[in-house]
Design goal:
Radius of gyration: 28 Å
Low-confidence stretches: none
Number of strands: 2
Strand content: 5-15%
Distance between the termini: 60 Å
Shape: flat
Strand order of the largest sheet: 1-2
């Protein structure tokens, strides 16, 4: 059993901490290899789950899992040098915003 570390971490030197970590690591079990086992489900449970998902899609349609963040703010943006916005209306994914906070600190 490795020694318990002191209340004050500065009481031990770096070598003592490394030796303690080596002792603790030697006592731990190795990490398991491979994928974790999935719980086995019966065919009835699998069928019921698939049917429920199918009903959800039939009633509500396909769900768009894309997360979109929209921020509404008032007022004018900061100075043009500090914040540069390049919007591409044809391809919104190509739009960019460049923030230069160091210019705000200089002003």
């Amino acid at each position: 059993m490795p020694a318990t570390p002191p209340e004050d971490p500065d009481a031990w030197s770096e070598e003592e901490w490394l030796a303690w970590l080596a002792d603790v690591d030697a006592e731990t079990d190795p990490e398991p290899q491979g994928h974790p086992a999935r719980p086995a489900r019966s065919a009835g449970v699998e069928l019921m789950g698939a049917a429920m998902l199918g009903m959800h899609r039939a009633i509500y349609g396909e769900q768009d899992d894309e997360i979109v963040m929209v921020e509404e703010t008032g007022g004018d943006p900061p100075g043009p040098d500090e914040l540069e916005v390049d919007l591409d209306p044809e391809d919104p994914d190509a739009s960019t915003v460049t923030v230069r906070p160091w210019l705000r600190d200089q002003a």
